Amino acid sequence: MSEGQQNFKTLVIGASTNESRFSYLAIKSLVKNNVEVVAIGKRTGVVEGIKIETEPKHFDNIHTVSLYLNPSNQEPYIHYIIGLKPKRIIFNPGTENPKLVELARTNNIEYIFGCTLVMLSTKNYFE
Length: 127
Prior knowledge:
- There is one protein chain.
- This protein has helices spanning 3-6, 22-32, 71-74, 78-84, 98-106, 116-121; strands spanning 10-15, 37-41, 45-47, 50-53, 64-67, 88-91, 110-113.
- It is α/β, with parallel strands linked by helices.
- It has one domain (3-57, 70-126): Rossmann fold (3-Layer(aba) Sandwich).
- A seven-stranded mixed beta sheet has the order 3-4-2-1-5-6-7.
- A hairpin with a 2-residue loop joins strand 3 (45-47) and strand 4 (50-53).
């Protein structure tokens, strides 16, 4: 793992073992790009060796939270996400949430309306 990429430890929320889901593809791409990944989803499973947890748990040194839940499904995770003190939150398409954006802003957490997969493919993820 390159020095720079190990500093981008990413929590995928809304992770799935369903190969047609963008969260599944994101985990695969993050692993391929040598990013340390942890994941939370509705069901347990493993993607690219990454265990999907079903309950929020404390993870240290989260740089990025990549969201794959619509705003109503984010509700139980909002204070959990802020409490992790990530450097940034990526709101993938369909996950934009004004409440979480405002909390991110007031807690000095960068937020991006973007796509983790596109950011990885263009290497913008590592900026």
